[in-house]
Amino acid sequence: MPGWNTASGKNGTKTVNAKSLMRASCGHKEARFFFEKEMQMRRNKYFYGAAAIGTVLLVAASQTALAHGGATGVVKERMDLMSSIGDRMKVIAAMVKGEKSFDAETLAVKAGEIAERGPKVAPTFHEKNLDEPSEALPAIWTDWDKFEGLTQDLTREAAKLAATAKDGDKRAVMVQFVKLGKVCSACHTDYRKKKDH
Description:
- By secondary structure, this protein is mostly helical.
- It has a single domain, classed as Four Helix Bundle (Hemerythrin (Met), subunit A), CATH 1.20.120.
- 72% of the residues lie in helices and 3% in strands.
- The protein has helices spanning 18-26, 28-67, 73-96, 104-121, 139-142, 144-167, 170-191, and strands at residues 6-8, 14-16.
- A two-stranded antiparallel ribbon has the order 1-2.
- Helix 2 runs antiparallel to helix 3 and helix 3 (73-96) packs antiparallel against helix 4 (104-121).
- The longest helix has 40 residues, at 28-67.
- The termini are far apart.
């Protein structure tokens, strides 16, 4: 079709570039308007996803800090470790949500520190200890392979976030932060006691 950018698809059919189609049907200015609207909607999707993940992690980190009273031995060790990860997630979440200035260098450092702590998580759960104030569920030990896999995912996604931050692409950082946050949320959902409040 004249003026349209076409490309061969499967079975020799022609596919039309969406931006070119809009330009041909409603003019360049209108096409640009709709294209920019589409891009804005995509950016918003990642922003609100990151904001939601950030809020969940902030609440979880706050609850963990409050629950540490009276913890001893391996329970204290694992709770302190998880709290240190949560503290770094809070710093990153504040930047991603726009509550603090976006500092790619600081964000990369914090994400790198999470990645360094990731391999230490599973070893603190080798000893099955559910004494109060532990928030661990027995499912950790009955479903050990999945739990350990999530700790490995934590390490991998945090390392990716650190590398992404070094590139300075804020949108890419938001996308990767959501991926990291989903790992944290999955672990908390399946292996951490639910709060009554």
